[in-house]
Amino acid sequence: MKLELKHLAPYLPYGLKIKCDYYNTYGSHICEIKELSIRYYYQIMRGKSKPILRPLSDLVEYVDCPDVMGEKIIPISALLDISLGLDWSHSDYLEWGQGKNEWWVGFKDKPCSYFGYNSDNGSFYYVDKHNNHQSVKKQVDLFQKLYEWHFDVHSLIDAGLAIDVNTLKK
Questions:
Q1: Cα–Cα distance measured from residue 108 to residue 123, given in angstroms and rounded to the nearest whole number
Q2: Is 113 in contact with 106 (CB distance < 8 Å)?
Q3: pLDDT digits (tens, 9 = 90+) for 10-63
Q4: What are phi and psi of 44, to 5 degrees?
């Protein structure tokens, strides 16, 4: 896989953080970009700088998200709220989990009904109590949130083209 502009562009409106090894001979530093200048594009394409992204496994972890000030959320639950237009993410009715390339949230009282994201298919889905898979409305809105929250939807971390935010020193 080769890093391309199409992988970076969706993150830019939300301030893409990159680790730059080019500027400082004493180490690297982190900067945030909202537009891709020729200088940054050149550094990233040459491997001198890498985007800092959140792995998809964080979908089922408590994380800080930029638009939820000072509150840790479980992103897959917040995505369920966007999909349904409801506010379930703050309730005790949800449970979440993950499988191979798949992350989901379900209702505790309905163990067979759940909402999830599958990275192999690149889509969100809903499974009802009869195990019927259904496509979810608002796919574009859900992907916009993944980009806003800097989730690695293109598997750049696995390809060595991006840095896992969890590996950085706090």
A1: 23
A2: yes
A3: 999 999 999 877 555 666 778 788 877 777 777 777 777 899 999 999 999 988
A4: -70, -45
